[in-house]
Design brief:
- The complex is a heterodimer of chains A (107) and B (457).
- Chain A has one domain (5-106): Helix Hairpins (Orthogonal Bundle), CATH 1.10.287.
- In chain A, 77% of the residues lie in helices and 0% in strands.
- Chain A has four helices and no strands.
- Chain B has 20 helices and two strands.
- Classes of the chains: A mainly alpha (107), B mainly alpha (457).
Amino acid sequence: MTGSILDTIHINNYLILASFLFSVGVMGVLFRRNAIIVFMCIELMLNAVNLLLVAFSTMHSDPGGQVMVFFIMAVAAAEVAVGLAILVMIYRNIGNTDINFLDKLKG
Amino acid sequence: MNILIAITAVGVLAMLSEILNFRRFLYPISLFVMLVALALTGMEWSHGVRYFNDMLYMDNYAVVFTGIMVVTTLLWFMMNENFLNGNPRQADFTAIISFALGGAMVMAGFSDLIMLFLGVEILSISMYVLAASNKSEPRSNEAGFKYFLMGAFASGFLLFGIALVYGATGSFNLREISEFVSENNTDMSAIFYGGVLMIAAGLAFKVAAAPFHFWAPDVYEGSPTPFTAFMSTVVKTAAFAAFLRLFSTCFSEVSTWWSPVLAIMSALSMLVGSIMALRQTSLKRLLAWSGVANAGYMLMAVVSLNEYSDTALVLYAAAYSIASIGIFTLVSNMTNAGNEEISSLHGFSKVNRFPALVITVLMFSIAGIPPLAGFFGKYAIFAGALKDGFVWLAVVAVLSSAISVFYYLKVVVAMFQPAGREAVQLEFNPGQSLVLGLVLVLVVVLGLVPALITTLI
């Protein structure tokens, strides 16, 4: 693979960056209490995957990974649309977006 | 790809019915098209066609699982006649359920990791909407939100795993991945193993196996009962179909590496599910925990990969789906009466003799008492684990199965007790009685002749 960007910046760097972004997302989902920020962290996880897929796609010179990225973007948009709709509904009912207030179901 | 077209056609027709004003015909139309989809599934059998440039492979495994899920959805439509007919949101529910079934079908037949991801998401996004569909009820909102959050989180793990496997093997296609793995199975790079484990974690979230089960009881309890019924049957079957398909075709060569992890998950699910189910007083929540325990049993089929694990899983999934649909007709009537406590069933058998009989048989089947379908499902799965050398796992499974008899029989005992003060009148409409009759026949017939379904694969 001559002249590829991966010659200048080795694939391991992409792997480390993507893993780092993914971990930031996971930590955010686990520890943040505001539902909107949790949503953003889930997006961060998905975008870390996108970055990784694009890097691997270049490494294998195979367009499949980039096609997958488009699918992930479309699905993530659909997912967030549904998630925000649910969140708006919750806000109308309990007037808050803090996930600690979601404690009606227990046992 | 006629099955997928037929299934999504129900959804499109449902949305058109609002515009063109034929909503009153929607229910019979959806029943009819589901029957058509079932016939199309039968026609697909033993042809093994690869669709969409080898993205979807309808082998017999996929056909049989699709058949189970279409039958379950048909029974679901029949049991929810009163819920759907006349409901101002009938069209929405019909559409979303049929899209979810489309996603489930894709999960059973995928032959490419992109398709796996799309199937999981089509199914999950539909279910998030349905779980939260009771807009004014905070419990339903909470269920929908928790399901969404956990589902999206799990999708992240699944995707990261897929990306790592793609990085290690250079392909999304199951055949190419499995060829690559069998050529280089001694020196696979570390990211491949990481990817396999992350895919396992993501799918374990979706099937609600411990330690990724904590969302399940809340979501099952908070969602409107018809959708809980769908979740615990079709969604669970689809997730396991995908789980076994992926791990048996692609990762079987490296099974020494992941099977101990899945074995621990499976043992944990069985124990946690059974022990927590013991202390539940609400039938809906009890079924949620029993779903966790059953996820553990079905995971055993994935752990002990051999040539029989797909037939064992098919038998178990069929028996479990059928029995669950029957039990959920009872739960949905209890929800309508406003009391989901097991104690409210006292005196039930006096008024409803036939439903009480059927529910008893179903509880026996799901608890694994011969000669019903559930027993042979459990037997096949336990035998598979023993054959593969997981003796300790089989011992845990038998123990947990013994515990499960307690809580399933608790429901049966409650039904046959004399009526107390808080007893509620439950009425089964003709559709639900028909479902109970069909389910009874299926459970008994599959118990007497399990070969009816196991020879199909």
